[in-house]
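Protein Record: Sequence and Backbone Structure Tokens
======================================================
Scope: a single protein chain, as residues and as a discrete description of its fold.
Tokens: labelled as protein backbone structure tokens, with as many entries as the chain has residues.
Position: the record begins directly beneath this header, with no further notes in between.
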Amino acid sequence: MTTLLLYITILGFIVSFLLLINIKESNRVNLFLFGFFFINNLYCLAHYATIYSGSKTMIAILLVNFTPLFLIVGPVLYFYVRGVLRDDYRLSKTDWLHFIPAFILLINIIPHLFSSFEYKLSFGERVLSNPTEILKNKNLFVPSVFNFLLRPIIGLIYVAICIRLMYLKFKYEKPENKQARLIYTWVSFLIFNTLLVYASFLVFTVFSFQTLDYKIAEVRGYYFLNITLVGLVLFNISLLFFPNILYGLPQLDFALPNKLKLPAEELLPKRAVRSFEISEEKLQLLHDKIETYCLTKPYLNPDFSLSTMSADTDIPVHHLSYYFNEHLNINFNAWKNDHKINYVIELIENGSNELLTLDALAKQAGFGSRTTFFNAFKQKLGLTPSEYLNKQSNI
């Protein structure tokens, strides 16, 4: 059990940082998922330090100092689930109220937090010799027993809130297409697994306080402790079963702003609630808007980027990324270079190559370097620009 808990925690931190390094404009909601995974595994490490490590140093560092952070796990789960269901990761001013319990607990442990490290080491030594000492750290107003019970209880409260969000979202709107089923399955798994972990850990915590002896509590709560460990393992291997969560889950089902005055947009009714349906109508709308935008040849600007395109068209960056990667099966840079090469070919066919060098043509097309131009040209046509010119001259 000792080694297993430590390995689970190490795996969890690896998964957490894998999420963090993959945070992009297209999946900002995963910041909350990173927080959820990281805090859960930090709590797991604190549990290991207290019960199994035998290290007063680990106890001094982990047992009390991070307790306010553990109360944030419920809110970040809620923000993540809500963000995925609404396709909007942003927080409102009132959302900060969810952090009040953690802030109160932070104030409560200030005496311990600002104690000397020597005191914390002595506290760790007392906990090792007598587990009941865990309830005797310095607090301002709330006894330690409430600190420990609040963690799973607040977690379960937020699980109930997330279940309600899912119920309201899918009460009338059935997950019928691939994207909707993916979101429904992933969020359901996340919520159910969290329920499993926090309910079983709450029971184990109650056993611990009844006996005030971890060894006895481990025997009495054996099944519940193992359910908690299984749940933690499932959290930490979830990326194997849901790799798409790394890249975000855009919905694409709302009327795009009518910035370019497309007739197709005027035919699409605006809806107050976003849906998971990614219909052909919506994809066609996106396609028409992008094609119309491309008539101005924005890709000829050397500084043209996905962010530029998003600002000009009022299409969110993560929706553009989804459109290129999932619908067109091409990344943005390849799509951009493809248009640039088409422009160069158009210039050649109009005889511009007789007046301009290849480097000049590449510059007109917005390529930043000769190498990029040659590579993009060969990738598209299977020929270098010089070979293409020779072939054209022989026709």
Q: What stands out?
A: The two ends are 76 Å apart (CA to CA). The chain has two domains: 2-246, 263-393. Residues 263-393 form a domain with the Arc Repressor Mutant, subunit A fold (CATH 1.10.10.60). The longest helix spans residues 178-211.
